[in-house]
Request: fold
Amino acid sequence: MRYSDINLLPAAQWHHSWLAYFLRWIISYGRYVLIFTELIVILAFLSRFKLDQDLADLNDKIKTDKVILQSAVAFEKQLRLTTKDQALIAREWKNQLLWSRYLQTIGQLLPPTIVIKKMEAAPDHITLVGSSSSLNQLNSFLNNLKANPAFENVNLEKINTSLTSDQESLITFSISLTPAKTYVKY
Reply:
């Protein structure tokens, strides 16, 4: 007699009932389901140790990174202020270079008989106050300023004539002009 031939369930009328089918299923396939479920539970339990260690490592890394970032806050603020100051200085330097080009152009166009006594430079215009002994030279200077691409809106604001102590005619004037934004001479 073989062991597989032994049937512990009696062959009675309840042999075809739902309880008998359930017991046969539990004995044959159910044990595999239970073993598989227990393996999953054991694996989940064991993986918990690894996950807890990973979480602890991440928390430690976050704490150290937070300390590093907090220590760098003052340096970053200083760096931002420095770069902002450098940007302002660079912009001012560029503006000064542009103004020097405009002033150099005015100096090149200035006739020898005209003397500039006062020059006011604003971001959008330049005012020249000066004197000349010749009306032709003043007219030539104005025409050269108007013809130059470095300047726009060249206007003669004031003009006065007076006599000097030598009884010579002296013309005082005020000229307003706008630097051209597109004029960049390298």
Remarks:
- The helical segments are 18-109, 135-147.
- Strands lie at 114-121, 126-132, 151-163, 169-179.
- The mean pLDDT is 83.
- The first strand starts at residue 114 and ends at 121.
